[in-house]
Amino acid sequence: MNHMFVEFIECTKCGEKYKSGLNYNCTKCGSILDIKYDYEKIRDRIDMRRLPISGSGVWRYKELLPIENPSNIVSLNEGSTPLYKAERLGEAFGLRNLYVKDETRNPTGSFKDRPITVAVSKARELGVGTVASSSSGNAGGSLAAYAAKAGLNCIIFAPSSTLDSKLIPIALYGSRIVIVDGTVSDAFYLAKKASEEHGWFNATSTFVNPYQLEGDKTVAYEMVEQTGGEVPDWVFIPIGAGPLLVGCWKGFKELNLLGCTTKLAHMVGIQAEGCAPIVKAFRENTDKVDSWGKLTTIVYAIADPLVGYSQDGTYTLRNIRESGGVAEACSDKEILDSVKLLANKEGIFAEPAGAAVVAGAKKLLDEGKVGSDENVVCVVTGTGLKQMISERFERPKPIRPDSKELERFLEKTGL
Amino acid sequence: MNHMFVEFIECTKCGEKYKSGLNYNCTKCGSILDIKYDYEKIRDRIDMRRLPISGSGVWRYKELLPIENPSNIVSLNEGSTPLYKAERLGEAFGLRNLYVKDETRNPTGSFKDRPITVAVSKARELGVGTVASSSSGNAGGSLAAYAAKAGLNCIIFAPSSTLDSKLIPIALYGSRIVIVDGTVSDAFYLAKKASEEHGWFNATSTFVNPYQLEGDKTVAYEMVEQTGGEVPDWVFIPIGAGPLLVGCWKGFKELNLLGCTTKLAHMVGIQAEGCAPIVKAFRENTDKVDSWGKLTTIVYAIADPLVGYSQDGTYTLRNIRESGGVAEACSDKEILDSVKLLANKEGIFAEPAGAAVVAGAKKLLDEGKVGSDENVVCVVTGTGLKQMISERFERPKPIRPDSKELERFLEKTGL
Predict the structure, then answer these.
(1) B55/A contact by beta carbon, under 8 A
(2) How far apart are CA A340 and CA A357, in angstroms?
């Protein structure tokens, strides 16, 4: 019943090879592992050249995912999110071919459901009874939901800045929550150590678990399917450590290897000015990303200082450069304005991190790096319903249910 | 370019007929209007007997929807929501064939996107520049999003109990908000009157606008498609005024007329004990629903006292009875417990109104009205992200990022 085309798992630095199992970073050099497939065999078995693949969601690409037995799949119908032509937003910016890949439509409201469906399926396949993760909220909510569906125990490590609106769903799904007095990096290390000690499956959605990137890459497959085989010129992705960007880049490269496409996209990683370690290295034209000091942003979902695992940032930067892409940062004000713009022009309500790509696309267009006729896809990664930027909302004063009072109200507020 | 199979619009009480246009209630007797199609012609043109219809979302059924020209359609990829077999929840209850139709997966997080996509498309078709609605939040959020996508003005009338978490998305989509010092009924009347005076398209999602029920009925089409042509024995739906229930019932009847099915479902309407006008009439075995007095529930999305339009409740009750169904009420405690149960067993996070059907299904099973082998579908209407029942959440105290402190915490909290 082995449906898997995985050949081996390889260290991205020293080249050490591993068999599929409970793998995290390279046990030899500590670097990031990557899953390698037998693309020749995949080409023979399924015709990826004829897109779209039938069915719906992440698991229609199961030949390109690292699960041996489909009966282990734990799914909540993730993926197959809409790709919209953003006509009104594009017009406002002067971008003729602007698209939004709306990842807010995933089951728990963010793209994290893609890596997490793979992780929880792998945990089930390996027979592990407890899954754990460090998370600022979205990955934690996703892991808690999939663990609930699968009947697994779940424990989430969240930094103290994590919003109640991200923790409440996690608690309702039945997960345990550990609030760590520190940053996402502190939570990362505690989750890692505790998972090793207790034998939990560590599903932290950075690069520590090589299986999860395989879920991320399905965003690239879908983009190409949804444009009838076209590859965008530019793909904008909000990045903390950057696994979604690296995953998408891998997805585009695989479509080339499988003979579906002949072109590759330029990958753009967007960070918030208040936590931009990868952008800093890009701007300084160095290869090595350093960890970040003080966080001064409310764009929490991508506020990862990478303390102790700056190699993750270095790896993401290497992938951005390989794609001929850019790393750029936007201010919190630019990002919050883009939340409003995306809602107001396209009817899509994103969290700040999700809308950051919109601010980024405008910036690169204004700087002349992106041309007004080029094909641009903004990956909007998470829903605004879990970070409502309520500080900008002023609740209107109630009026009596009376026509005259309504007319006065309308006049005063200028409709 | 007329793609429409609408024959006429008919009063459900006096039988007066209208042509398609800006219709609300019957101008002769004030009753609810219903849209009638030429099913013979539809049978010739599309083969609804061969389900599923290809494509995705509400608009793949466009022959059964009241829009003349498809270029007027305003869509955010609503519909095609998952139907899950709820294995773990069913096991907990002793229901062998329990399904969840997960309407939280719609673009703005509730089923309201189905009636609203039809309403906003109709507003565009009729050339109206402003849409309005009274709403406790979900319909308002939906209308504001679709109006943003279409570039129309939007104005939402919300009762004073409406939560900030429902108003913030509405404001970000760019809609005007009028908070009405009163109930949803007061907001209803103010929206109705103002729409008449200003020439706005009144998209209030009760029975006032006959087009919107046509979007609701697509839930029934999808249920039948997703079970390979089977009709459930029981369909549970949370009801305020009840258009979703009546719409689904119409959908099942249409599938019969079109030759796709030979069976009909029993429709069960669930209300909260603190606002249960339809259940009261059902229990008292009368035909006429009376409006409700004091609201004593936090299940806001279905807390409609029907003051001034109790005929809507009477109409819904008539449809429930016609289906051989039941109207039942649950306590707020039962409903809040079911939010947790649904999240914990199935990984689905619903708002209280959405999870009310789970409490209702358990109740009817325990009362022996529903058999443990029967096919039961619970329509979970809206996401929990807009009403998080935060009063039940206790934020854990932070711990230092230290293994020993973690072990103490885990021991104390009992993992």
Answers:
(1) no
(2) 13
Instruction: Nearest by CB to A181, from B145, B146, B399: name it.
Output: B399
Q: Which amino acid is at B15?
A: G
- DSSP, collapsed to helix, strand or coil, labels residue B62 as helix
| Other C-beta atoms lying within 10 Å of the C-beta of residue A390 | 12
**Phi-psi region for residue B181, left (φ > 0), alpha (ψ -120 to 50) or beta?**
beta
A388 touches B at CB < 8 Å: yes
Cβ-nearest to B88 among A151, A187, A385: A151
| A76 contact B CB<8A | yes
Residues in A closer than 8 angstroms to B176, CB to CB, are 410, 413, 415
CB B325 within 8 A of CB B318: no
Query: Which position has the token pair 């072990």?
Result: B407
Name the helix (H) or strand (E) containing B8. strand B6-11
Q: Read off the pTM.
A: 0.96
Say if A347 is an interface residue toward chain B (CB within 8 Å): yes
Q: What is the rounded distance in angstroms from the CA atom of residue B39 to the CA atom of residue B172?
A: 41
| CATH number 3.30.1120.10 is the correct assignment for the domain at B83-109+214-391 | no
Domain ranges of chain B: 83-109+214-391
Q: Taking the CB of residue A268, how many other CB atoms lie within 10 A of it?
A: 29
Give A150's Cβ-side CA count (13 Å radius). 30
Tokens found for residue B153: 């003005």
CB contact under 8 A, B349 and A396: no
Tell whether B92 is within 8 A of chain A (Cβ): no
A84 neighbourhood in chain B, CB within 8 Å: 76
Does A401 sit within 8 Å of B168, measured CB to CB? no
The residues pairing with B177 across neighbouring beta strands, listed in sequence order, are B156
CB A299 within 8 A of CB A353: yes
Write down the CATH number for the domain with range A83-109+212-391.
3.40.50.1100
ipTM above threshold 0.90: yes
Q: What is the DSSP letter of B99?
A: E
Q: Which two tokens stand for residue B392?
A: 């039940």
* Residues A401, B187 contacting (CB under 8 angstroms): yes
Q: Residue A10, exposed/middle/buried by CB under 10 A (0-12, 13-18, 19+)? A: middle
User: Which residues lie across from A155 on neighbouring strands?
Assistant: A132, A176
pLDDT, one tens digit for every residue, chain B (415 residues) = 456 899 999 999 999 999 988 899 999 999 999 999 999 999 888 776 677 777 889 999 999 999 999 999 999 999 999 999 999 999 999 999 999 999 999 999 999 999 999 999 999 999 999 999 999 899 999 999 999 999 999 999 999 999 999 999 999 999 999 999 998 899 999 999 999 999 999 999 889 999 999 999 999 999 999 998 999 999 999 999 999 999 999 999 999 999 999 999 999 999 999 999 999 999 999 999 999 999 999 999 999 999 999 999 999 999 999 999 999 999 999 999 999 999 999 999 999 999 999 999 999 999 999 999 999 999 999 999 999 988 889 999 999 999 999 999 999 887 5
Q: CA geometry: angle at B291 spanning B362 and B120, to 5°?
A: 80
Q: Report whether A26 contacts A14 (CB < 8 A).
A: yes
Is the distance from CB of A170 to CB of A276 less than 8 angstroms?
A: no
Q: For B162, which residue in chain A has the nearest alpha carbon?
A: A395
Chain A closest-CA separation from residue B192 CA (Å): 11
Cβ of B172 and A386 within 8 Å? no
Give, for A283, the enclosing helix (H) or strand (E): helix A277-283
DSSP symbols for A284-319: TT-SPPPPP-----S-GGG----TT-HHHHHHHHHH
Reference B212, options B299, B130, B121; nearest CA is: B121
How far CA B15 is from CA of A160, A352, B9, B222, in Å, comes to: 63, 52, 9, 30
Per DSSP, the three-state class of B176 is strand
* Partner-chain contact A403 B340, CB within 8 Å: no
